[in-house]
């Protein structure tokens, strides 16, 4: 029955998206695999979008979708929000340029707004992406502690660079012991050096994590984690409190990667939910309102490792004989603190300050409705997540605590369901999480639940 449903769903998908198929074939003549980011690809081919408006996407075949991918959570106001469009236009018109290449007022204005919601971020630095933010945070940890290994958790993603591209989604067969995971390389081209210098920890397992950290405390500069793994598997409160205690005890910095959870779990992110102040925090996605940006913030004495002095500019050849660049943490970038992006980000936060409760309420409504429909159709599942993010996990387990337990879920059924939903006009990349925006309302929720009821009827 499931195989027949799968075949029918795929046939319908192919029938509805012939131009996406044609365009994907053409794109492969330009880009490897037809995409410029691996995450955008899925079989048999990705849907090629043509327009976005509010809560909706429209593909090149004219199909309309309620969008729950929202650029992997970046668009918390939806597509083309007037507040962001107006902020961008005003910034360019008022300032006369969209790039100064110098300090400007919006850098400080945005920084004050960030500190208002994230008090742990005593000082901040801007980057151009969440990936750059985690990269800088790790460098700061090395510079501040003088130690040159880091620890990350199995199943957690912090960017596409060698130092952290390990044990993001390892197979259980290769992942090693549950209490002491193996560091598994996740990409071609990653130097095996990083297997020795990036220690992998078991998420939501405090005893085993503490034992590893104590054993390697003289080498580890920082522990970096997604306080909510993949944006939807929350850390246990006891685990998080214990992790904060053990890292402080051992002189290891604690880095919260809140690129996914910042402003999505609530205005203060996951750290407000847990009541914990990390040493460093990284933000991205939502704070740019759909534009590329990242922020690193944290304790003043850690951030000050990057403060320049008159002889610390690695690019200034006139100072070459007296250069002290090696004594200062290097961080630079022409586009850091881009004024147009910061204007968009400020507009986004201003809207969220008024409408975050609506987003959280709508998310709870959708999760409840989906859970009730699965129960109606006799399928065991969970809608896992906090705030405005969740995932639909088809499983008999009462609780999902980490990557290995998630691997026991029924991904085959979930993927079939996702294609049935695509055919009903509900968009997220197959097997991906759901993110909601201010533009999702009662109509979108009811239309989504109707689509789920139809899809689940076909599935069962």
TrEMBL record:
KW Transferase (keyword) present: yes
InterPro entries per UniProt:
Aminotrans_3 (IPR005814), Aminotrans_3_PPA_site (IPR049704), PyrdxlP-dep_Trfase (IPR015424), PyrdxlP-dep_Trfase_major (IPR015421), PyrdxlP-dep_Trfase_small (IPR015422)
Pfam families linked: Aminotran_3
Keywords, in A-Z order: Aminotransferase, Pyridoxal phosphate, Transferase
In the UniProt record, does the keyword Kinase occur? no
One GO molecular function term of this record is:
transaminase activity
Q: What is the required cofactor set for this protein? A: pyridoxal 5'-phosphate
The cross-references to PROSITE patterns, in alphabetical order and at most eight, read: AA_TRANSFER_CLASS_3
Which Gene3D superfamilies did the record assign?
A: Aspartate Aminotransferase, domain 1, Type I PLP-dependent aspartate aminotransferase-like (Major domain)
- Source taxon at top rank: Bacteria
Family under the similarity heading: Belongs to the class-III pyridoxal-phosphate-dependent aminotransferase family.
What protein name does the entry list?
Aspartate aminotransferase family protein
């Amino acid at each position: 029955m499931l195989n027949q449903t799968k075949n029918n769903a795929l046939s319908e998908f192919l029938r509805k998206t012939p131009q996406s198929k044609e365009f994907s074939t053409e794109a492969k003549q330009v880009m490897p695999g037809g995409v410029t980011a691996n995450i955008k690809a899925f079989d048999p081919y990705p849907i090629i979008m043509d327009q976005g408006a509010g809560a909706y996407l429209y593909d090149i075949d004219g199909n309309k979708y309620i969008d729950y991918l929202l650029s992997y959570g970046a668009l918390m106001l939806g597509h083309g929000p007037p507040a962001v469009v107006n902020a961008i236009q005003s910034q360019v018109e008022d300032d006369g340029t969209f790039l100064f290449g110098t300090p400007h007022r919006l850098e400080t204005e945005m920084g004050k707004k960030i500190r208002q919601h994230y008090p742990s971020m005593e000082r901040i630095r801007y980057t151009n992406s969440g990936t750059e933010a985690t990269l800088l945070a790790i460098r700061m940890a090395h510079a501040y502690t003088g130690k040159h290994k880091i620890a990350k958790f199995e199943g957690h993603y912090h960017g596409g660079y060698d130092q952290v591209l390990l044990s993001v989604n390892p197979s259980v067969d290769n992942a090693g012991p549950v209490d002491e995971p193996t560091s598994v390389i996740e990409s071609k081209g990653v130097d095996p050096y990083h297997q020795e210098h990036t220690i992998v920890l078991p998420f939501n397992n405090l005893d085993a994590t503490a034992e590893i950290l104590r054993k390697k405390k003289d080498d580890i500069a920082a522990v970096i984690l997604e306080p909510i793994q993949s944006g939807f598997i929350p850390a246990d409160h006891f685990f998080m409190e214990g992790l904060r205690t053990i890292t402080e005890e051992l002189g290891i910095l604690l880095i919260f990667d809140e690129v996914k959870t910042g402003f999505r779990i609530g205005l203060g992110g996951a750290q407000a939910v847990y009541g914990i102040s990390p040493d460093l925090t990284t933000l991205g996605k939502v704070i740019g309102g759909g534009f590329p940006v990242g922020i690193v913030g944290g304790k003043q004495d850690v951030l000050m490792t990057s403060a320049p002095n008159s002889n610390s500019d690695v690019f200034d050849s006139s100072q070459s004989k007296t250069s002290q660049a090696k004594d200062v943490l290097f961080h630079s970038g022409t586009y850091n603190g881009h004024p147009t992006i910061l204007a968009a980000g400020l507009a986004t936060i201003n809207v969220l300050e008024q409408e975050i409760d609506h987003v959280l309420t709508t998310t709870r409504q959708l999760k409840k409705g989906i859970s009730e429909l699965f129960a109606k159709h006799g399928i065991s599942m969970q809608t896992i997540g906090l705030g405005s993010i969740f995932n639909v996990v088809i499983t008999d387990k009462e609780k999902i605590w980490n990557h290995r337990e998630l691997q026991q879920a029924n991904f085959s059924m979930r993927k079939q369901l996702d294609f049935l939903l695509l055919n009903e006009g509900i968009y997220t990349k197959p097997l991906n999480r759901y993110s909601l925006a201010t533009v999702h309302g009662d109509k979108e929720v009811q239309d989504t639940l109707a689509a789920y009821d139809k899809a689940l009827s076909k599935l069962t």
